[in-house]
Amino acid sequence: MEATAICGSDQHIFNNPIAYQTALGHEFVGRVVEMGKDAEKEILCYDGEVKVGDRLAVYPWLTCGHCKNCLTYGRGTCTVCDTSFFYGGPVSPMGHEADGWHSSNPDIYPHFKAGYGEYCILFPGTYVWKVPREMPSSVAALLDPMAVAMRGIELAQTQCGVKEEALNTSTDACIVGAGPIGIMAGMILKIMGVNSVTMIDGIQYKLDKARELGAADYIIDFTKYTDMEERKKLLNEYAGGGPRLVIQCANTVAAFVDALHYVRPLGTVVEIGNAEDYGETVTCNPAALICKKHLRVMGMSANQPGTYDKAFQLLKRYQEYPFEKLFTHTCTLDTLQDTLGKMRDRDYIKGVCLYDR
Asked: Residue 48: pLDDT above 80?
């Protein structure tokens, strides 16, 4: 292992242990030290054959390829397969974890199957990308969150010229939640050439970081503008009548209803932030907030290797765009637990565990 970026889900699992032990860390990059005799055929590399010494970034999902959903949606489509495996976390809460050696339980051989460790085994059928020689492993470890942001933007796309078209050079977009996913989504939108991006969050440090990284043209601190009508007035000013696209990246259910209020008629809302079910609910009036506004509302959890490839091609442009500045905290395996405890600090955006090689 060379680098494992820290995901918010790592902290949640760490603080809420499940029924059995699981190894953590799914945003990882490692160097190949040993290969089985069929590894060249069984590891699915986007950049040619894998060899000892290569550094690899990894798609963290394995799917069976045989169940009805895999046959319908394609091999590698995550969160829908009947018997998935997920490097660095349990799939059992979703109800479809693989058994035996594909289990995420580290007590079951082979034991090393996550990013927080000195080594990790790659199973047959794993999708990988070779990391270019000069590219920092920490940047390559951003593949998974960058792919989540990329998938959210893919969902916003429509056929050209339709009334509901959400993404083009005239788009004024809004992102709710200035965490890593929200900031990366803003960076992608700006790279794609949208007209403007407004970032909404309640922590000024994160909003300033979003602007510093080129992810936001305008920022709104909702702790200063607590009234919805105040925020909508600002958005109408910044986005010329309101945003056509809202990407909701905050991990709070109330933010989803806020997004429905923010978006203009015939707009699109992509919900990313509430991918995990914590038992919270909200109420809204779908007639007023969805139907009468003729909204497209897209939920997101399923992703695919092709989207990860788009994300990785963008990360390879790290010399043009300051992706590495997303990391506000670094640690080692010895200090990882301390860093997990800092994830709710106001100056925390993204952490990475680095290995001395």
From this structure: yes
Express each pLDDT in 82-124 by its tens digit.
888 999 987 755 545 566 667 788 888 888 999 999 999 999 9
Phi-psi category of residue 40: left, alpha or beta, with phi > 0 → left and psi -120 to 50 → alpha: alpha
Q: How far apart are CA 76 and CA 60, in angstroms?
A: 10
pLDDT of residue 107: 84
CA distances from 290 to 51, 264, 293, 338 (A): 52, 10, 5, 43
From residue 160, alpha-carbon distances to 294, 297, 323 in Å are: 18, 18, 30
What's residue 18's pLDDT?
64
Q: Chain-centre distance of CA 189, in angstroms?
A: 15
**Cα 175 to Cα 29: distance, rounded to the nearest angstrom:** 28
Alpha carbon 311 to its chain centroid, in Å, reads 10
CA 199 to chain centre: 17
